[in-house]
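Help needed: design a sequence for this.
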């Protein structure tokens, strides 16, 4: 597919670059076709947030970094969209938090798993679990292929980071007694509601911020990390995220959306 040149002056240049990247990775076999649709749904919520990381999201990022650092066996679960957009940040986060990286896909096939593994290795990963026959364990109560996990990875994990996840598996992981960190632009999704900590933000902003925060906190003692985690209330966090969207929409309705967009495009 011929690429369209994106002008840096375009008011939605970053969004267009992300879309272009996803299409490119889809053609390579990394992103599944439903992943393109899922991205569009998330992007709609990013509009509502003003396409920025809120103070509410920063609180969740700090709690998530603390939980990963204090974990005995943290694992970062990777699907096609996450690999396509933030592979290098996934590897950096795994290095800082000493987490394992595991490929876990809704639409599984060996070729696609191997392609994602190769991308992660090219991004600096020493190992990627969950590929092919390595995904020999099963998560109860899951009907899709996402039930398949690596017995040395997600099955044993006490904390699992699940960027761009589905609600069924998040709920199942929680029932298994694991702590789950979600990155989800939709605060109303089942994933957001079931997770221990939900970062309501775009993954392309949240993952680099999570890496930076983990680096800042990695020398803190376990007691402080656990205190930061225990003081975080995900129900309150999601309420604040919904409240932020509500207030922003109210302000836009009062000012006029067209005027706001025009002013933004001139900056």
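Sure. Designed sequence:
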């Amino acid at each position: 597919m011929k690429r369209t040149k994106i002008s840096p002056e375009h008011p939605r240049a970053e969004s267009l670059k992300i879309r272009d990247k996803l299409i490119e990775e889809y053609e390579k076999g990394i992103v599944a076709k439903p992943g393109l649709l899922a991205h569009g749904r998330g992007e709609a919520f990013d509009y509502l947030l003003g396409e920025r990381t809120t103070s509410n999201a920063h609180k969740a990022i700090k709690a998530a970094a603390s939980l990963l650092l204090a974990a005995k066996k943290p694992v970062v679960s990777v699907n096609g969209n996450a690999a396509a957009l933030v592979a290098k940040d996934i590897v950096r986060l795994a290095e800082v938090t000493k987490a394992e990286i595991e490929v876990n896909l809704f639409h599984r096939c060996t070729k696609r798993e191997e392609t994602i593994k190769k991308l992660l290795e090219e991004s600096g990963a020493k190992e990627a679990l969950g590929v092919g026959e390595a995904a020999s364990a099963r998560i109860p109560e899951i009907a899709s292929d996402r039930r398949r996990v690596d017995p040395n990875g997600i099955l044993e994990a006490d904390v699992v980071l699940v960027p761009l996840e589905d609600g069924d598996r998040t709920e199942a992981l929680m029932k298994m007694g694991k702590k789950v960190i979600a990155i989800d632009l939709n605060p109303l999704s089942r994933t957001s509601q079931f997770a221990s900590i939900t970062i309501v933000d775009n993954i392309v902003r949240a993952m680099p911020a999570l890496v930076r925060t983990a680096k800042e906190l990695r020398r803190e003692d376990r007691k402080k990390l656990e205190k930061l985690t225990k003081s975080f209330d995900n129900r309150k966090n999601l309420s604040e995220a919904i409240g932020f969207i509500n207030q922003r929409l109210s302000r836009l309705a009062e000012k006029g959306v067209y005027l706001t967009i025009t002013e933004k495009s001139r900056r």
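Residues 261-267 have pLDDT under 50 and may be disordered.
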